[in-house]
Amino acid sequence: MRMPGLKKNLANSKSREERMKMIDRGDKKLSISRQAELLSINRTNLYYKPVPTSDEEYMIKRIIDEVYTAHPEYGYRRMTTILRRDYGILINRKRTRRYTREMGIHGFCPGPNLSKRLHSKYLYPYLLKGLNIDHPNQVWSIDITYCRMKRGFMYLVAIIDWYSRYIVGYGLSSTLEHTFVIDTLKKAIKRHGAPEIINSDQGSQFTCEDYINLLKENKIKISMDSKGRALDNHRIERFFRSYKGEKLYLEDCETGHQLRKITQEYIEYYNNRRPHQSLENRTPAEYYYRKSNILVQVG
Length: 299
Prior knowledge:
With 299 residues, the chain is of the alpha/beta class. It folds into three domains: 4-47, no CATH class; 55-102; 123-289, Ribonuclease H-like superfamily/Ribonuclease H (Nucleotidyltransferase, domain 5). It has 13 helices and five strands. The chain has helices spanning 4-13, 16-21, 32-38, 44-47, 55-70, 76-87, 93-102, 116-120, 178-192, 209-217, 234-251, 256-272, 284-289; strands at 139-149, 152-161, 167-173, 197-200, 221-224. Strands 3-2-1-4-5 form a five-stranded mixed β-sheet, sandwiched between helices. Helix 6 packs across helix 7 (93-102) and helix 11 (234-251) packs across helix 12 (256-272). It is globular. This is Putative transposase InsK for insertion sequence element IS150. Residues 132-292 form the Integrase catalytic domain.
């Protein structure tokens, strides 16, 4: 029995986490594999049990997060040197690369060569060099950052409008699956309309077929940072630095619920109350909507 319409509607209307909760392991008519197929869920997610993170690994990742947030231009070789020299951590380059890949830092962590031919099919040139960006929704940038908690972590995907620095969408997830990126982008497009160009790094979430097809369906031009050039996407990197330095690092969240709460609070503050000198001391919302005294909630 084939139900492509049902699969498409569920995939478009429900997040991955919501679809995971719909699995009924006691259903005698539909196998778990068939349910996963109908819900557009990778079956491995249903059986995979993550290995608990050791205290040492968690501590090292916290340090990598802080160093990378302050210096996104650092490569894994320099990061390894910093960890050894400044923090006295015995770590090799291979381990540093593995940790940063797990944290979603793709600027200096290219994927394995095994998938290079397939991966290159969805690589696109950087379109922003020399571009005159003079109106909202001309260019958006999208990226993912690692959000540490007191014990554990989540990932934040955020989308910023280059012209106004306005955060047009964001989402939090406990995994780096591409579905949470696509869900967040769909919501942003529905709320604000499609941008002319969207820029990202070359991470797997932004080079997968589903993501590329979504952009093509909405007639969005695709721009990607050059390999190892995190500063090509500096607008979103600066936002992440502000978010972490002004909010996340000060809170030390204990739960995902608390992290979601403080993230929503900060983005509302950033969009509506935090003036930018580069925006003539106006807020991103004022510049994006070209109005004053407005309050907009992003979700």
